[in-house]
C-alpha cells in the first residue's frame, strides 16, 4: 500500500480535505506552506529532535511484558512505553512539534482543546517551555473526570476554559477552540491534539507522532531480528495509533485499532465510529462520524475521556475502507479488566485509553503461537484516571 497520501487536496481517498469557513482558508494555507518548509529545514529538524530527546525523554523503552505473556500462555507481548514520556503520554511528541512551528511562524499564542487532559497538559507544558500564551478549551464533564489535569494545566500557566454546550466533552471543546481560532487567527496558532481537523492537521500530527512507530521498528528488529506479527493501538481521533501504524503500512505486519465500545455497541452508548459511523463532515474534515437518522451528530460515550469523540481521523477511515488496518472495539468493562490485569502482573498502571488496546491484545495473544509477538502502544499512564477508577472500582482491587 502507498504511503504517499494525502494528495494535494489533503484527501485520503474520499476522506479528509478542508471543510472550513472562508476566513480560515488563508490560515490553513499559511500553515501548510510553513510546515512544508519546516520539515525540509535541517535546523528545525535538529531542534525538534533535541527537544524530543533532551526534554520529552525519548527514546521510550520497548518493554517485554514477561508476566502477562506467561499468564496468558500465547504470543509474546511487548509494550511501547509512551507512558514514560514527559507529561505521561504520547501527546507531548506532537505538542513540541507544533509549538516549534508556531514559534517559527511568529505566533505568540496557542489555543488547544482537550478531552482526557493529556493534550491540554502537553500544550500547557510546551507553552511554558517556549514562552507562549496558552488557552485550553475543555468540556465541563471532562473537567470533572480529569480534575487533576485541569490543575496541572493551570499550574503550568494555561487558562482552562470550561465548555458547557452539548455533552460537555471533547467534541464540544473542539467546536469552541475552532470558534476562538477563527476570531484570533492573526496571532494565534491552533495546536490540535489528534489526526483530525482540516488539512494539513491530520498529516502534520501523523508526522510528529510517527516517531512512535519508527522507534518501535528499530527496537523490535534489535530484540527479535524481525518485525512483530501484530501491532495494536487504541483509537479515538487516532493520533497514537497512526503514529504507531504508519511506519509499518508497507510491511507484512497485522495492524489493529481498538475503538471504545462503551457500554456495548448495541446499547448506543459507545464511541465506535468506524463500526457504527457514516460518512460526514466534522471539524473541517470528511470522515466517518456517529450520526442520528437526521444527520445530526450522535453524542459518543466512553469511560475514557480521550476516546469520547464522535469522529475518527480521515486516514484511519481510509485505512479501514481499504482493509489495511482492522478496527474493532472494547467495552468499558473489558478495558477496566485489562487495566487491572496489567497493573497487577507488570506493575504498570496504564491510561484507560490504552487499556482498550490491551484488552484486544490479551484476547488475541491467547489465540496466537508462542513464537509470535504482539506490540501494544501504551499511549499514556493511568495517574490521571485514578479518580475515575476509584469511582468504578470503589477503591478495591
Automatic annotation (TrEMBL):
It is an enzyme of class 4 (lyase). Its EC number is 4.2.1.20. Signal peptide: none annotated. It catalyses: (1S,2R)-1-C-(indol-3-yl)glycerol 3-phosphate + L-serine = D-glyceraldehyde 3-phosphate + L-tryptophan + H2O. Belongs to the TrpB family. One of its GO terms (cellular component) is cytoplasm. The lineage of its organism: Bacteria, Bacillati, Bacillota, Bacilli, Bacillales. Tetramer of two alpha and two beta chains. SUPFAM superfamilies: Tryptophan synthase beta subunit-like PLP-dependent enzymes. This is Tryptophan synthase beta chain. Pathway: Amino-acid biosynthesis; L-tryptophan biosynthesis; L-tryptophan from chorismate: step 5/5. The gene is trpB. Residues 56-380 form the Tryptophan synthase beta chain-like PALP domain. CDD domains: Trp-synth_B. Gene3D superfamilies: 3.40.50.1100. GO terms for molecular function: tryptophan synthase activity. It holds the Pfam family PALP. HAMAP family: Trp_synth_beta (MF_00133). It comes from Pueribacillus theae. The beta subunit is responsible for the synthesis of L-tryptophan from indole and L-serine. The modification N6-(pyridoxal phosphate)lysine is found at residue 91. Its cofactor is pyridoxal 5'-phosphate. Keywords: Amino-acid biosynthesis, Aromatic amino acid biosynthesis, Lyase, Pyridoxal phosphate, Tryptophan biosynthesis.
